[in-house]
Amino acid sequence: MTLFLxxxxxxxxxxxxxxxxxxxxxxxxxxxxxxxxHIGNARPAVVFDLLARLLRRSxxxxxxxxxxxxDDKINQAAIDTGKTIDEITAQYIEAxxxxxxxxGVLPPDIEPRATQHVEEMVAMIGTLVDKGFAYEADGHVLxxxxxxxxxxxxxxRDLREMIAGARVEVASYKRSAQDFVLWKPxxxxxxxxxxxxxxxxxxxxxxxxxxxxxxxxxxxxxHAGGQDLVFPHHENELAQSTCAHDGAPFARYWLHNGxxxxxxxxxxxxxxxxxxxxxxxxxIPGELIRLALLGAHYRQPLDWSxxxxxxxxxxxxxxxxxxxxxxxxxxERAAAVPPAAVIEAxxxxxxxxxxxxxxxxxARALNKSTDDDERKKLAAEILAAGELLGILQVxxxxxxxxxxxxxxxxxxxEALLKQREExxxxxxxxxxxxxxxxxxxxxxxxxDSPTGxxxxxx
Length: 458
Ligand code: AMP
Ligand code: ZN
Known about the structure:
Distance between the termini: 40 Å
Largest sheet: 4 strands, parallel
Strand order of the largest sheet: 4-3-9-10
Bound molecules: adenosine monophosphate, zinc ion
């Protein structure tokens, strides 16, 4: 396997080589559990689930995705709802896992919770203080960014410029505006743990450094998350871990997904334009949402719209339509591997749009073929690719049975298009127009092209 991944630290697409031959460690920053995940939050879970599935083909993967279950937003949610912190976090951890499962995200191997790793965080903070990278002030412990000459390396920020440009009022206990909190004091009603610096709670960034160290070691192969985490979260994790480990590299490859916007607008709770996965999966098949998320390259921005969902629906109609009615034994299915072109596209920095295009060319070959053995072979390969991509998970018949009664299936549409073509060949234009109208009434738009008619649901 020659996998290439774009690494944020070097800004380059690099050939992937794990630290230990044959084994890979991956850490994805997971949710802060104070409300339901929105469709933007689902993007990293889905795209890095695809990477995990790809890696498992060739490596023994240990995949960790943490849960941030201590955070001021969680404390606030408890106050707002009158629930306890444990009730809030338990509710949203369960919802997150159910929602991601509905999108075909396989459970991570390790799901460390911040509240269960405070001891490790306190130990790491102690190490940073002892080594002169952190200082105690006013019940807080802060990371001293000036002690780390590499600070800013991941996000390509210049520390001096950052300090000069800092407009926020700097807390009196900080030596420098960019110093960030490792530990902060808790009042009696807030969650807190005993520490050498008094009763308090950890800062967000130290959680991931401590949990990654405990479960995956000092150097991890892949560290992933959304683009917004590059600064400050990952920059700070990098500084903490490298300084605590005497310069040992923290992550060999840094991967970041692009942002998802909603009809060209940034999703934001204050704008009220947030789509919750929890609600969406009640009416939309999970694999359809997953395919729409994989329709764009993971590093590109993705504009979410009804059209993106409809595009994914017609893609699934076409793929399920191609394999419909082809009987495969368990052995035939188990023996099949995804088409080489699909794998190649994914190995090129997880190029899922290209992989899907390759899958469609396979589906077209299947539709054209009249040789039963060849059709079976192609169908088995399409299903194997579906397993890798986390789509085509249900039986084709139930896919079509599940679509709206008023919806024409892909097969019905193809049949009508064929009739229309025949009518045109016979110069029966009234009949051809009638079929076009019938399709239009069913919300199907036809586009004639030199290679034949194409359709999409409008
Ligand atoms: P949070 O719970 O806000 O820490 O976010 C969980 C994950 O979702 C992080 O990896 C974020 O980078 C990612 N994320 C949040 N919003 C978006 C978005 N609109 N598009 C893509 N990723 C997002
Ligand atoms: Zn993190």
